[in-house]
Amino acid sequence: MWGQVRSGLTRALRPAARQGLLFSSPCGVSRSSRSAACATSSGSMRVFTSSRLALQAAAATPTTPTAEAIGSSHGSVSGGSNPVEEDAFADFLPVVPPECLRVKKATPSSSHEAPAAPTSFTAMFRDMSPYINFHRGTTMVLHLPGQLVESAVFGAVMHDIALLNTFGIKLVLVAGSRPQLNRQLELRKLSQRFDCGMRITGPDELQCAMDAAGSVRFQIESYLGRGIVNSPGRARSINIASGNFITAQPVGVRGGVDFKNTGEMRRLNVDKVRAALDDGDIVLISSIGYSASGEVFNCLSEHVASKCAVQLESDKLIFLHNGEEMIDSRSNTVVQALVIQQAQQYVELARTDPEVNGDFLLYLNESIRACVNGVKRSHLVSRHVDGGLLQELFTRDGEGLMISKHMYEGVRMARHSDIVSIMRLIQPLLDDDVLVSRDQEQIESNVHTFTVVERDGAIIACCTLQPYENNFAEMGCVAVDPVYRSLGKGNALLGFILRKAASMGVTKLFVLTTRTSHWFMERGFVETSVNDLPPSKLAKIDLKRKSKVYITDISSKRALDEKELLLEMH
C-alpha cells in the first residue's frame, strides 16, 4: 500500500455572498414627466442589501417631506387614512411604469449555429440531478463530532442537513460531545482517566457526559428546528425525533481495570427509528445509552454511529472529520476511494505510525466495520469545508474519502478450465435462440474474449468483449444464471466491461439483441441502426435474425461515472 495521510487543515471558509437588490427609480419623479424621461434617461439606480436598509435610507432622506413619504394622492384606504402615492416608494420598490416598458426583439439564430452554452448554475444542476434522484428515499447515518458544534461552519452544516431532508433522504444523526465533556471535567476539576484507549467513566464523569450530550443535543435541535429559513414562502419546519433509541451494556472489567459506566451499544430500536424516518423526521441519537435495568452508560459515539448504520441496513455512513487526506505517495495525488481490503491493509500499516491522527484511524476503522457488515458505502468528509457534505453526495469528484465494497467482486477473465461451465450456462439461451448459435470449439478458440463472474467456485455469469475498428467494441454472449439475476451480477458484469472497454480506448460499446432490449435501454444504451456499426461487424451480421442494435457512449470518465451510477440504481 503506497499511501500516507496528509494532516487536516482548516480551510478558508467561503464567505456567504450577499447579493444586493438592484432597483431602478422610475423614469421621472412625477407622472406628468415620465414620458419625456423615458426617452432621455434610464433613471437613477440604487443598490440595497436588504429591504430594511432601503426603508432606513428612504426615511433618512432629508429632502423628502413626511407627507410625501407616506403618500397623499393615490388610492384610498378605510378609516380616513391618507391615500398612498406610488411615487413615494419608487426609489426602493421594483415598479416600472408601463410607459417605460418595451419588448426587445429576439435575435434570430440559424439552426446550424451551436446552441448557447449553459450557465454554471444550469450545468451544476444538471450534474446534480442524477444524484438527487439516486439518494431519494435512502437511509444515511451521519456522525456529528462535538468539535463541529463549536466551529464556524456549524450553522451551514445544519442548513445542508435540512436540505438533505427536503430531498427525501432519511437521516439519522449521531452526536458526539468529546470536547464538551472534557471541558465539563476541567470545570469540575476532574481528571481524565483512560486505559487501552477507552475512557473510564465514574459517577461524576457520567454526570459530565450527560450534561455535555444534552448541551450538544439542544444546539443541534435548535438549529435544525429553524428549517430552511431563507426558502421562498413560509420556512419549512423540520421535526427532530430523539430519545432512548439505543440499548447499551457495560464494557465491564478488562485487563483488571473496571471501566464502570463506560458502555457499548448493544441494540438499536430499529422499528421506532424507521417509523420516525418514514414520517419525514430526522432522528437524533446521542452517545448516552441505557440498559434494560435503567443504568446509564457513556458510549463511544463513533461506534454508536457504525452500529446504527449496520442495524438500520443504511445506504451510507458519513463521518465529519478533521480534514486529513489520503495521499498516494508515488504520485502525490489525493486518493478519493478505497475498497474494504485496501482500507484494512492501510489500517494495519498505520497502527504503528505515530504521525497518523488517532481519530482518523478510529473513523476509518468504524467505516470498515460498517461496510463489512452490510453498509454499502462509508464516507469521511472534512468538517471544515463549507458545503463539503453536499459536494461529497452530489458531485462526481466528491470532497472526501469513500470506503466501499468492490462492485466487481468475483469478476475475472475466463480461463480454459471455465469452458465447460460457460457452455453449461449459455446452453439454455442457445436452445431458445436468444443467443447466436455457437459450439464448444468456438468458445475454446475465443475464450480470451470472455469475462466471467465466479461465486463459490461456480461460474454464474459471462459475456464477451470483442474490439472493432473506429474505437468500437461489442459486448456479446451475455448470460446470467437465473438464480442470481436479482443479485445485481448482470450489473456488475456490465460495469466491469464498460471499464475494461474504456481502458482499451473504446468509445462506443454496442450490443445486438432480440429479447433483452429493455434491459440494456434501462442501463443507458440507445437504439440505433445496423449501418452505424463498424464495417467489419456489419459484414458478419445475420440480417435474418433481425437483431436490434444498441450503443452506449463511454468516451469520457464522466460518461462512465454516469453509467456506473445508473447500474447502482438498478
Description of the structure:
With 570 residues, this protein is of the alpha/beta class. It has three domains: 40-72 and 84-95, no CATH class; 123-404, 3-Layer(aba) Sandwich (Carbamate kinase); 411-569, Gcn5-related N-acetyltransferase (GNAT) (Aminopeptidase), CATH 3.40.630.30. The chain is 35% helix and 22% strand. The chain has 19 helices and 28 strands. It has an eight-stranded mixed β-sheet with strand order 8-13-5-4-16-20-21-19, with helices on both faces. It has a seven-stranded mixed β-sheet with strand order 22-23-24-25-26-28-27. Strands 1-17-18 form a three-stranded antiparallel β-sheet, with no helix packed on it. Strand 17 (325-328) and strand 18 (333-334) form a beta hairpin. The two termini are 33 Å apart.
Which terms would index this structure?
8-stranded mixed beta sheet; globular; Aminopeptidase; 19 helices; alpha/beta; 3 domains; 570 residues; Carbamate kinase; 35% helix
- Radius of gyration over alpha carbons? 32 Å
How much helical structure, as a percent, in the residues?
A: 25-40%
- How many H/I helical runs? 19
Write down the overall geometry.
globular
Query: What's the structural domain tally?
Result: 3
Uncertain regions: pLDDT < 50 for 5+ in a row? 9-81
Instruction: Give the averaged pLDDT, no decimals.
Output: 82
In the CATH hierarchy, what is the superfamily of the largest domain? Acetylglutamate kinase-like
Order of strands, main sheet, comes to 8-13-5-4-16-20-21-19
**Biggest sheet descriptor:** 8 strands, mixed
Q: What's the architecture of the largest domain in CATH terms?
A: 3-Layer(aba) Sandwich
Q: How large a portion of the residues is in β-strands, by DSSP E?
A: 15-25%
Q: Termini distance? A: 33 Å
Structural class: alpha/beta
What is the C-level CATH assignment of the largest domain?
Answer: Alpha Beta
Beta strand count: 28
Predict the CATH topology of the largest domain: Carbamate kinase
